[in-house]
Amino acid sequence: MAEAILNLVLNKLAEAAVTETLRLYGAGGQLDSLQHELQWIQAFLKDAEERQKVDHRTSAWVRDVREVAFRIEDVIDTFMADVDDHNNRRGVINALKQVLKNPKKLSIVRKLTSEMDAIEIRLREIEECTERYGIRELREESSSSATQPSRPLKGVMLPDEDDPDVIGLETDKENIVELLLDPNTPRRRVVSIVGQGGLGKTTLAKKVYNSDKIRRDFEIRVWLSISQQYKFIDVLRMMLEGIRPLDGDEKDLLRDHSSQRRSEVHFVRELNKLLKENRYLIIMDDVWTHDIWEQINEALPDVRNGSRILITTRFSEVATRADPTCDPYNLAYLGEKESLQLLLKKAFPFEDPKAYLDGLSDLPEKFARKCGNLPLALIVVGGRLSRELPTYNSWYKILQKLSWHNGDGKDCTDILATSYEDTPSYLKPCFMYFALFPEDYQIKVKRLIRMWVSEGFICEKNGTTMEETAEDYLEELVQRSMIQVVKRRYNGSIKYCRIHDLLHDLAIKKAEENNFLQIISNQGDKCCTSSNTVRRAALHCNREDIMQYTGPNLRSLFYFNDEAPNFSSFRNLKILYGNDDNDKYIKLPSKISKKMTQLRYFGNFLALGADVAPECWKSITHMRNLQTLHIIGYIESLNANYMWNVKTLRHAILPLGFPGPPSKADLPNLQTLKTVTVRESWLVEGWPKLPSITVLKLEDFPPKYKESFCHFLSEVPHLRSLEIRVDDDVLYERLDMSSFPCYNMQSLRVCGNWNNYECIGGVNQYKALDIHMFPIHLLKLTVWKCDFQEDPMPVIEQLKNLRELILVQGHHYQKQLSCSVRGFPRLEYLRLYNLESLWEWKVEKGGMPTLKDIYIRDCPDLVVIPQLQHMTCLDKLTLEGVHENLRDRLQGEESYKLQHIASVYYI
Question: What GO biological process terms does the UniProt entry carry, in alphabetical order (predicted)?
């Protein structure tokens, strides 16, 4: 890990802003010397990190390197903050004049020089230790043996670890299903799956949850992920949301933290009412204590209709306390054959392993035995091998490194740690970053990637953005089976991910060893912390006195609680990340310190109405290094021209009503801009310069801007996602997509009166829908207020690459939707929302051949839908607010049409 930290410091010293400022303040020579010394040490560091496991002297040398790297980071960050503060007080021009006249008189220069001199002395001492500890010889020995190149990532989507198609659990699944469906036990029953971490309890429970027998027998099925530090109200919320959407009053109850007990009583009452009317299955995954069962018990009525609760846990006591009359189902290890099969499946995700087995001799069997037949260990080791060339020598070297000597499957900590040690240095900080998130947390990948970039984990590469490189890093962690994919986007990129509990524990352990982070959380009345010199802190509880647990060196602050701590004292803070779980955003502070000039990631905050003072937005302009600004909500009457002076901005997610950049604004690095209001000046003075923009969302788009907007689009060739919201009161001439040079556009969302009319001479004239009105390469299309005079499907279905289609809120037309046998050859997701006049949806046999997921909501007149039994890929169907006749037929005489669908929901 010291190698990775040193890389980060070298990247910092190479940043243009740092380099130019140091040279301007007369420290250019020291910068060059510092870089040279660090690069020299870096040449020996990788081998020293491997040797430190068995050599305490080398371990001390690695620790010294890590500490001096942290010290350099502190010195540079403090210096840059001093410069910004100095320039703010005196003005940039006056500050530069003073430096040029007599730079030594400035205290910040004297302070910098003194610190860098001390660091150089310390680096020379570390250099001398390389010979004293024999690290130089180690380097020469290791460099003489050529290393095998790794296999590159394939140019296809990687398999997801959350895929329930695993090996060796079919018999277990049938046994659990039989217990759940036992007709001799009509009363409510609790069935428990017990086994150590990594055995596949969650995967087995998912296979049970999605089995055909279970889907047919239970009207309500709800999945709950229970972590060690759960909140009871969150468990109740998840359970209710699994049955029906929350209404507005219930959402307000959740936001009002002062009425938690009232919220709990309401949710328990609602759950009781809903569950009494149906046969239900509640799956509670990863239960650590019996407390949660005792709390949730009263929300689960026993009406003697065969309802069931399925618990997965590591502890037999939890199982017996939940239901003493039902023996726990103890999950066993895999057999030798299944272990070998699972290992090879993960080691060769894209190829047939048979072609390589002869050359590998008995190594696969040795790996399987080394992993003790434990699924998680097999998956992680297989993922590690998937990155190596499938030769005997390369696999043998990996086998020699595995330190799990007993091989009995009792504890896979060592083997997981070995896989971490074999991870490339550039991935180690990315992996340890997952320790910051609570257990079982579903992580939003876009935000994770932006934080990695802000931390400096990602290097610039020619031809690709840092965000694209970060996506590659995440995909590599997935291929190594260290991270799990929860959901992918329409274009195949990862939308949500998570980390297995045991790997989460490993990430925390490694992060603490390297002073990378600390977790501040309540355990009883105690606060669990590590060193106060830590660089990153995650608050999993409410703490006002955070300074007591961290210290002045804090660089990143994450809070997953209900309140924002006082962060104004952290001058060198780079990342401030607020709770975004279940949209529990925290209000934007009324005052922000202007000294937080080093901040790179600022979110996720809520801005409402006129509550936010203009001074708050002005303070944000002092964040000269800001890369991501994420604030939701709405604002009123704001003049924010000064906001667009931050040239480093890469992603700006802003509240409704926020005015867009002025016409003369030049934002060369901005990739994401949403949501901003179109400025009147854009029509006269021209659109702002956004050469790197990839995601754009515009509010209140006037129709008269069509021509100038087309010219703007010709200057943004990287645009991939566009959303336009048009004033509802304006009947406008539709935007003709055929005139857009949108070769890279993958997602289009048009919101407004899209109604097949254009206004010509004050008269509404009908205009037919045409395929040329859409970018031909679209993967996702969303149309709001789609009051088409004619059925739009015959036109839209010609978009051959379309993966996802969403039609929303049509009031006056669209009584029928018809799809041909040739239509939508690649469509996977279809959403029909609020189509009030729709009564029939038809698809010719063979049409929509790849459709996986259908969601129909609030279409009250819909009574005719396609012959779904012909859609063989269909995996999920959700019907909410459709005609009772349709629902009754599908649950009765036409239920055979749904037999092949894994998940069917009626809401």
Answer: defense response to bacterium; innate immune response-activating signaling pathway; plant-type hypersensitive response
Structure-token pair, residue 507? 């990430």
Residue 168, number of CB atoms within 10 A of its CB: 19
Q: Give the CA distances from residue 481 to residues 243, 407, 436, in Å, rounded to whole numbers and listed in that order.
A: 32, 20, 19
Confidence of residue 169 (pLDDT cuts 50, 70, 90): confident
Query: How far is the C-alpha of 413 from the C-alpha of 506, rounded, in Å?
Result: 8
Q: Rounded to the nearest 10 degrees, what angle do helices 363-370 and 392-401 cross at?
A: 20
How far apart, in whole angstroms, are the C-alpha atoms of residue 632 and residue 652? Answer: 10
The whole-model pTM stands at 0.82
Query: What pLDDT is stored for residue 290 in this prediction?
Result: 82
Instruction: Dig out the tokens for 413 from the structure.
Output: 């900590």
Residue 99: partners with Cβ closer than 8 Å, 6 or more residues away: 24, 25, 26, 106, 109
Q: What are phi and psi of 546, to 5 degrees?
A: -65, -30
Residue 246 CA to residue 306 CA, distance in Å, equals 27
**Largest alpha-carbon pair distance within the chain?**
93
**Residue 837 main-chain phi, psi, to 5 deg:** -100, -5
Count of Cβ atoms closer than 10 Å to residue 609 Cβ? 11
The fraction of the chain above a pLDDT of 70, given in percent, is: 80
Q: Are strands 494-498 and 484-488 parallel, antiparallel or unpaired?
A: antiparallel
Residues making up the chain, counted from first to last: 907
Transcribe 205-265 into DSSP letters: HHHHHT-HHHHHH-SEEEEEE--TT--HHHHHHHHHHTTS---HHHHHHHH-GGGHHHHHH
The Cα 84–Cα 569 span in angstroms is: 16
Residue 873: other Cβ atoms inside 10 A: 12
Is the CB of residue 809 less than 8 Å from the CB of residue 784?
yes
Give residue-wise pLDDT tens across range 15-46: 767 777 777 777 777 777 777 777 777 766 76
Structure-block tokens of residue 593: 């310190």
Q: Please say if the pLDDT value at position 658 is more than 80.
A: yes
Rounded-to-integer distance, Cα 554 and Cα 312, Å: 38
Backbone φ and ψ for 685, nearest 5 degrees, come out as -95, -10
**Secondary structure percentages of the chain, helix, strand, coil, to 5:** 40, 20, 40
